[in-house]
């Protein structure tokens, strides 16, 4: 983590997929070039210092993700519901920020059709992400778009970081025989990278809104 950024090349999803001055660097450049376009006036808040990008996924991690996802697929609705119910249990403020789930008893949520549908949408995205591990540019575009949507849904950036750890706890019972520190690290790395791009895009949307409001 410490040496993040300067030595990174390629999409942050891949060390191997390097194509020169791209990936996290390009991502930051895109954000800052957008910022430069928008930031002509002094009152526009400066871009906060970018947190260092997470470690890109290794080939081994991509393989592990692909293999373990195949095993998870049949349990995915259950995994999605458990992910969100545990997220709401441990972070009630996140539940309150979801309009349809605000104030709903957790026991009722466990059987809620709406929660299941939402969880399935999120899981379908994880499936897309796993399917695009070897097409990092496409994955980055999808994540930026998703981040932008989440800004408009009113999701807070800090909440985006909370999904990965809950998802990882939820998949463990389905992967007992395959579970290892390596598997854990691979899923952690995927969610860190996804959250990093989504949050960058949410922050860019916020700056855009501030700029629009100011003019
Ligand atoms: C890694 C994190 C996350 C992923 C991958 C994810 C994924 C998704 C996807 C794929 C959708 C459907 C978008 C569409 O249909 O166009 C969605 C919708 C939504 N998400 Fe997330 N999400 C994440 C985190 C969060 C968080 C932390 C919040 C709020 C605290 C949130 C709130 C919402 C809301 C309000 C919607 C719209 C309603 C709905 O589709 O049911 N999401 N999310």
How would you describe this structure in keywords?
0% strand, mainly alpha, Globin-like, disordered N terminus, oxygen carrier activity, oxygen binding, metal-binding
Structural overview:
The chain has a single domain, classed as Globins (Globin-like), CATH 1.10.490.10. The protein contains nine helices and no strands. Helix 3 packs across helix 8 and helix 7 crosses helix 9. The N terminus is likely disordered. The chain is mainly α. 66% of the residues lie in helices and 0% in strands. Protoporphyrin IX containing FE binds next to helix 4, helix 6, helix 7, helix 8 and helix 9. InterPro entries: Globin, Globin-like_OT, Globin-like_sf, Globin/Proto. This is Cytoglobin-2.
Number of strands: 0
What class would the helix/strand composition place it in? mainly alpha
Helicity, as a percent range: 55-70%
Main sheet, how many strands, which sense, barrel? Answer: none
The overall number of domains is: 1
CATH C-level class is Mainly Alpha
Per CATH, the architecture is Orthogonal Bundle
Beta-strand fraction estimate: under 5%
What ligands can be seen in this structure?
Answer: protoporphyrin IX containing FE
Sum up the overall morphology in one term: globular
Q: Supply Rg.
A: 18 Å
Look at the structure and give the mean pLDDT. 82
Helix and strand arrangement:
Elements lengths: L22 H16 L20 H14 L3 H15 L1 H6 L8 H5 L2 H19 L4 H18 L3 H15 L9 H34 L1
Helix pairs in contact: 1-9, 2-9, 3-6, 3-8, 7-9, 8-9
């Amino acid at each position: 983590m410490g040496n993040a950024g300067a030595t990174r090349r390629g999409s942050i999803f891949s060390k191997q997929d390097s194509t020169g001055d791209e990936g996290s660097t390009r991502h930051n450049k895109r954000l800052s070039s957008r910022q430069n376009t928008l930031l002509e006036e002094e009152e526009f808040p400066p871009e906060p210092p970018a947190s260092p990008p997470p470690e890109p996924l290794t080939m081994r991690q991509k393989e592990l993700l692909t293999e373990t996802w195949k095993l998870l697929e049949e349990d995915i609705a259950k995994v999605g519901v458990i992910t969100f119910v545990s997220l709401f249990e441990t972070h009630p403020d996140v539940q309150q920020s979801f309009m349809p789930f605000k104030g709903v008893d957790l026991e009722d949520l466990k059987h809620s059709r709406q929660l299941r549908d939402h969880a399935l949408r999120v899981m379908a995205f994880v499936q897309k992400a796993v399917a695009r591990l070897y097409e990092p540019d496409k994955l980055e575009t999808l994540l930026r778009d998703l981040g932008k949507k989440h800004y408009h849904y009113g999701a807070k950036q800090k909440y985006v970081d909370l999904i990965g750890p809950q998802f990882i706890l939820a998949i463990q019972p389905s992967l007992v025989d395959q579970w290892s520190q390596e598997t854990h690290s691979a899923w952690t790395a995927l969610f860190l990278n996804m959250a990093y791009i989504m949050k960058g895009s949410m922050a860019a949307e916020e700056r855009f809104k501030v700029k629009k409001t100011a003019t």
